[in-house]
Amino acid sequence: MVEKPASQADVGGEVEAHKERKGLWSPEEDERLYTRITRHGVSTWSSVAQLAGLRRSGKSCRLRWMNYLRPDLKKEPISKREEETIISLQKSLG
């Protein structure tokens, strides 16, 4: 049996320092992601995660940006007019 070096001995063969972080995002992580994207844009989401110094997957960064951090994200409830439009379209289109 071949033993792995101590740095690779954890579960799954990943080096402990490079494991992706899971769970809630901290305000510091949000700030790093926001700053990276607003200053440099997005080439690939995995590169954004790496260049921002985040231990998150590219997919996690993309979802965080699209659903919470985008400057053009509307956070208010829908207006009465929007609600009426939705109801009207649902009635006509099903």
TrEMBL record:
<dbReference type="InterPro" id="IPR017930">
    <property type="entry name" value="Myb_dom"/>
</dbReference>
<dbReference type="GO" id="GO:0003677">
    <property type="term" value="F:DNA binding"/>
</dbReference>
<dbReference type="Pfam" id="PF00249">
    <property type="entry name" value="Myb_DNA-binding"/>
</dbReference>
<dbReference type="InterPro" id="IPR009057">
    <property type="entry name" value="Homeodomain-like_sf"/>
</dbReference>
<keyword id="KW-0677">Repeat</keyword>
<keyword id="KW-0238">DNA-binding</keyword>
<keyword id="KW-0804">Transcription</keyword>
<keyword id="KW-0805">Transcription regulation</keyword>
<dbReference type="InterPro" id="IPR051953">
    <property type="entry name" value="Plant_SW-associated_TFs"/>
</dbReference>
<dbReference type="GO" id="GO:0005634">
    <property type="term" value="C:nucleus"/>
</dbReference>
<keyword id="KW-0539">Nucleus</keyword>
<feature type="domain" description="HTH myb-type">
    <location>
        <begin position="17"/>
        <end position="73"/>
    </location>
</feature>
<protein>
    <submittedName>
        <fullName>Uncharacterized protein</fullName>
    </submittedName>
</protein>
<dbReference type="InterPro" id="IPR001005">
    <property type="entry name" value="SANT/Myb"/>
</dbReference>
<feature type="domain" description="Myb-like">
    <location>
        <begin position="17"/>
        <end position="69"/>
    </location>
</feature>
<feature type="region of interest" description="Disordered">
    <location>
        <begin position="1"/>
        <end position="24"/>
    </location>
</feature>
